[in-house]
Amino acid sequence: MLTTIRKQLRHHPALIPLFIFIGGGAAMSMAYLARLGLRNPDVCWDRKNNPEPWNKLGPTDQYKFYTVNMDYSKLKKDRPDF
């Protein structure tokens, strides 16, 4: 299969940017899915040691990838620390 792709790319070099952008998009989407699976507090991989990881987040912890007009350092703590 890779030899067929190689032959097609040699005969049609205009397809090279298409493969680059599709490969880059696939790599970025896999990286974002990995980040969601590893860094999101809603995902729990270890149910024995930490069954509810979202309870350990404070009000100033930033876990979202992008938040519009939000400065987490200026928030007041609503709940006491345990």
UniProtKB/TrEMBL annotation:
The keyword Transmembrane helix applies. Its main location: mitochondrion. It is a single-pass membrane protein. It holds the Pfam family B12D. The chain crosses the membrane at residues 12-34. Keywords: Electron transport, Membrane, Mitochondrion, Mitochondrion inner membrane, Respiratory chain, Transmembrane, Transmembrane helix, Transport. It is found in: Mitochondrion inner membrane. GO terms for cellular component: mitochondrial inner membrane. Belongs to the complex IV NDUFA4 subunit family. This is Cytochrome c oxidase subunit NDUFA4.
